[in-house]
Amino acid sequence: MRFTKMHGLGNDFIVIDAVSQQVDLNAGQVRFLADRHFGVGCDQLLLVEKPISANADFKYRIFNSDGGEVSQCGNGARCFARFVRDKQLCDKEEIVVDTDAGQLVLGIGQDGMVRVNMGVPRHDPAQIPLNAPSQLPIYHVVVDGESIAFVAVSMGNPHAVLIVDDVEQAPVASLGRRLESHEVFPQRANIGFMQVVDRSRIKLRVYERGAAETLACGSGACAAVVAGIEQGLLDSKVNVCLPGGALQIDWSGRGFPVLMTGPAVTVFEGWIRL
Ligand SMILES: N[C@H](CCC[C@H](N)C(=O)O)C(=O)O
């Protein structure tokens, strides 16, 4: 099976063309391919498939390194666009992809940066999903006797955003792991730790569902900007500084889509027998 190794700000992917080759992976095979010692190594594995909808060009499927299939991956969407363009699978200015959470629209600019319309964020607990009786601006859960405040939002995948004074000092590994699988999130969640630098700049670290802390999280960057704007802390155009680099996130408010712009890099091509 042919694959391409790519990354978006160090959030790395195995990308597989499942249009021109027959691909049928089970969770164990995904875990093997994602393993950084016994396999190829990646945070997520992405499949490029034939579309479901009449107006779409492809179906975009995403698997975390723990083998679980999920519905959204922002950095992966940029790599998806770069992949289909470089492989000459699609030469359209705008590429429409079906995902399990709706459609994304991808475009590659003259500067080589990739723009993604990440869709409209969802706040209803049932759509996140979140075990809460009603929609609140801030939720609280108790972890090890401490009350933790967070903003909850779905970008097609569940996110909890914590506002912290200093991301470098934030307990990303310990608290991120506990919150990721907290019972308040029936499908687990991605946990973002956001430091507001000013109204147009944040620092962010993300403990990802099914992958632990990554160098960058595209949907997490979108969720953090939405949370910051909802809390009145940010303007509509925000530079998000992640450990692996920076993304530009734009959001005009409820009912509007979140727009993400950033790089996508091909590292190497490979072939593996499963
Ligand atoms: N861990 C995420 C999927 C990958 C998201 C991230 N890599 C991104 O760039 O959005 C989840 O389980 O929802």
Short description:
Pathway: Amino-acid biosynthesis; L-lysine biosynthesis via DAP pathway; DL-2,6-diaminopimelate from LL-2,6-diaminopimelate: step 1/1. This protein folds into two domains: 2-100 and 264-271, Diaminopimelate Epimerase, Chain A, domain 1 (Roll), CATH 3.10.310.10; 125-256, Diaminopimelate Epimerase, Chain A, domain 1 (Roll).
What is the first-to-last residue Cα distance?
Answer: 8 Å
Tell me the major beta sheet.
18 strands, mixed
CATH class identity of the largest domain: Alpha Beta
Q: Helical segment tally?
A: 4
CATH topology of the largest domain: Diaminopimelate Epimerase, Chain A, domain 1
CATH superfamily of the largest domain: Diaminopimelate Epimerase, Chain A, domain 1
Morphology call = globular
Please, could you describe this protein's structure?
- There is one protein chain.
- This protein has helices at residues 27-34, 74-86, 172-180, 218-230; strands spanning 2-8, 11-17, 44-49, 58-64, 69-70, 94-99, 102-108, 114-117, 139-143, 146-154, 158-163, 190-198, 201-208, 212-214, 237-242, 245-251, 258-262, 265-271.
- It has 274 residues and is α+β, with helices and mostly antiparallel strands.
- The protein has 2 domains: 2-100 and 264-271, Diaminopimelate Epimerase, Chain A, domain 1, CATH 3.10.310; 125-256, Diaminopimelate Epimerase, Chain A, domain 1 (Roll).
- It has an 18-stranded mixed β-sheet that branches.
- A hairpin with an 8-residue loop joins strand 3 (44-49) and strand 4 (58-64).
- The radius of gyration is 18 Å and the shape is globular.
- It starts with a strand and ends with a strand.
- The model has no long low-confidence stretch (mean pLDDT 97).
